[in-house]
Structure to design on (340 residues):
């Protein structure tokens, strides 16, 4: 399905294909069924397409589920992926920057479609077993950024609490990190929260998002939720990705999504962010604009785009906003991920 909404030509920005291919990656996640599927796709890409690249580790943050459920979900997923060995998993922030915890139970309480305990049992993993490294995610992020600098891209597919905390403790990272790629926000105001305009990752930690996106990182790219909504899978193709059980990866995807209601179509979300960050040529159009994150009131968590550059400089932060991408390639990668 092609992108149904076209931005007027005068508002479009640069071609995003200028962005380099990074060779080192960290996935920052609140897994989440769609995060789990995204990690699976990352494992396929690294094994078959980006053999020059490396996943340094996966950092976990609360969001779709509690922090310890997120860690379990990442561990289970990694065991069923194309990875030669389970990536290092790091425990991050258990609460958002305001010390609260927001989630919507879209993937059930465990964030894994209700099948987490079943899979832990199949893997002979004790629920109380430590599945993460002793080093905290913030320390791992800081050390990785200092070591790899321009080579490193951090892909954030959850709330930005880990990045916010790292930035507060180690502000020098803003001048070191190669790229911050975030699945967050809305550029047309089509959200998935109760106020109609906010997106989950921002709404879960509004302050963290605002501070992180205001920071002067060398390269900030966001994939907004309403760009995702412009593309959808029909039942036939969606069923081939989410509703087959011909191998262990396909079965895991099926089991996670089995209890998630799809009314008329299927969507890829965090999966798209992973592919775009690792294979930047899949992004075909973006605009570079100032954005403003709303911190309070009914519109809390909303994102305003400075379309015609009239907002005060101190009120906006400039980011690259992905608006179009190669949809056919995304489908092909999703299908290939669970065919082995």
């Amino acid at each position: 399905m092609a992108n149904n909404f076209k931005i007027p030509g005068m508002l479009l920005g640069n071609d995003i294909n200028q962005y380099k291919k990074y060779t080192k990656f960290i996935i920052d996640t609140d897994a989440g069924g769609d995060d789990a599927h995204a990690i699976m796709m990352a494992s396929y890409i690294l094994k078959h397409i980006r053999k020059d690249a490396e996943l340094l580790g996966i950092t976990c943050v609360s969001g779709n589920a509690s922090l310890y459920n997120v860690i379990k979900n990442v561990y289970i997923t990694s065991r069923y992926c194309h990875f030669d060995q389970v990536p290092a998993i790091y425990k991050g922030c258990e609460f958002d920057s305001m010390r609260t915890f927001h989630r919507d139970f879209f993937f059930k309480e465990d964030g894994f479609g209700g099948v987490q305990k079943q899979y832990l049992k199949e893997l002979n993993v004790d629920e109380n077993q430590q599945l993460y490294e002793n080093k905290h995610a913030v320390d791992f992020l800081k050390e990785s950024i200092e070591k790899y600098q321009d080579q490193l891209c951090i892909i954030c597919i959850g709330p930005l609490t880990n990045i916010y905390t790292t930035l507060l403790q180690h502000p020098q990272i803003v001048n070191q990190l190669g790229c911050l790629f975030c699945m967050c926000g809305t550029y047309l105001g089509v959200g998935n929260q109760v106020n109609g305009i906010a997106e989950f990752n921002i709404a879960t930690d509004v302050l963290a998002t605002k501070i992180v996106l205001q920071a002067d990182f060398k390269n900030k790219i966001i994939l907004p939720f309403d760009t995702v909504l412009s593309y959808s899978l029909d039942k036939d193709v969606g069923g081939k990705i989410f509703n087959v059980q011909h191998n262990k990866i396909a079965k895991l995807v099926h089991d996670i999504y089995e209890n998630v209601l799809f009314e008329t179509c299927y969507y890829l979300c965090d999966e798209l962010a992973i592919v775009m960050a690792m294979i930047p040529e899949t992004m075909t159009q973006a605009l570079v604009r100032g954005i403003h994150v709303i911190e309070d009131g009914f519109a809390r968590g909303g994102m305003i785009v400075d379309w015609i550059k009239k907002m005060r400089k101190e009120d906006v932060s400039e980011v690259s906003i992905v608006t179009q991408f190669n949809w056919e390639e995304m489908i092909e990668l999703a299908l290939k991920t669970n065919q082995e």
Q: What stands out?
A: The radius of gyration is 18 Å. Residues 21 and 130 are 34 Å apart (CA to CA).
